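Q: Entry one of two.
A:
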Amino acid sequence: MSTQLASVTTLEDRTKRVTTQTLQEMRRAGTKIAMLTAYDYTSARILDGAGVDVLLVGDSASNVMAGNETTLPITLEHMIYHAQCVIPGVQRSLVVVDLPFGTYQGDTKRALHSAIRVMKETGAHAVKLEGGAVALEAIQRILSAGIPVMGHLGLTPQSIYKFGTYRVRAREEEEADQVRRDAVLLEQAGCFGIVLEKIPATLAAEVTESISIPTIGIGAGPSTSGQVLVTHDLLGLTKDFNPRFVRRYADLADTIHDAIEHYIEDVRAGTFPALDESY
């Protein structure tokens, strides 16, 4: 009986729509949150069906989908397009969309307009912004319209030219203190969660304990409320990006390469299509 009950509960958990409230409940229960990136219908459908809690339509699409060196070139229109592709493939996951560089910095009116466009034109459930105190006014303006906001602290890729490197952030106490202050500010403003990217594990644990909203780590150790990875990295579709925090659960780049070579061989040999593959 208990095994059957556990199975039913698991099934219900895997089919019930994830909301920002769900993430709060998961944090309180000590259940880790699984978050991955998605940029298209097919991958979103697979990830959602596998039980991923949060799908991030990340501005990392600039890197893995468009081949850009940084996230800076991607536009709001690009992000809206990718989110429009993701939403039809989702039945359960909470979908969060990155606001790209230049759509919220230093202009709260533009920030609100950008967030409203994302929500109205895509059907997404929330937006994500980089920065703490420097982005606070934009975050407050967006929240005032009833749009859920996820924060992002630590290494903020949209500021890469300011940092000059992708190295670990907040090793020095001054920057670590800023991360601590910013996390509290984002919670007080009303953010439903915060991504902590590439900061020391001890600092991430401290920040997670100091606030009541979920933290999602990427290169921030195991003590955050959940984890996020770029799906292309997890699946081994990227070969030239090997930071310490990436764990590759598959090697699909080689698998796909081998499959395509096999296809080419069959076409050249005239063995594809076979008679039973023809009309």
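Q: Entry two of two.
A:
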Amino acid sequence: MSLFSLENKVAIITGSTKGIGKAIAERMAEQGAKVVVSSRNQDACDAVAAGIKAKGSEAIAVACNINYKEQLQQLVAKTREQFGKVDILVCNAALNPYFGPSQDIPDAAFDKVMHANIGSVHRLCQLVIPGMADSGGGAVIIVSSIGGLKGTENLGAYAISKAADMQIARNLAVEWGPKNVRVNCIAPGLVRTEFARALWENPEIYQATVAKYPLRRIGEPDEIAGAAVFLASEAGSFTTGQTIVIDGGGTIAG
């Protein structure tokens, strides 16, 4: 069996109807995982799940707004009802309602970022990890950002939330490592997704960004998905508590 095989594994991927999350769902399905496609929109979830099933893999669609604990509970419950377990959790869904200096962010926007980007990860891990531990182990992958590794002029609250995600991974890796549950982060640089469209579609921002990237381009969703497959599979079985930076070299050269 391939080191990267996910045969007989069940994976929940939040925010998986587009961009990085969709790429992760599709690539994990290709490696044999039964995937749970999830975002706020049921129709979008249905469409992605149908595409995965059309290629011969197993998938279900469960709409979930990560801001609501009861919906997170329902997501996990429906997964267990359909597939009996959760082996892989990918916390990809996040939001950023504000772009600008921290001094001017409204309280409501700040609280919303923290509640969604940190709170939903914490709550999903509480819901899923004990079951992983009981069944012999599992893998949690949190999609963070290089924003959590450096200072930023316009993405302050978002960057704080992404730095916190890295610390969640470290804490949980220590707590649950003895039960063979591994928890890691991926920190992408600028990737061509709908979420980051305001950045890469702006010629000024795009050029200023890629000028600092040794590869002189931004990333594509599949280039993040490969790392997620690695972390979820036997290939990543000795990797935990880490943040893997995938940014075209931006953080080492910028």
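A: Comment on entry two: The chain is about 45% helix and 15% strand. The domain at 10-253 is CATH 3.40.50.720 (Rossmann fold).
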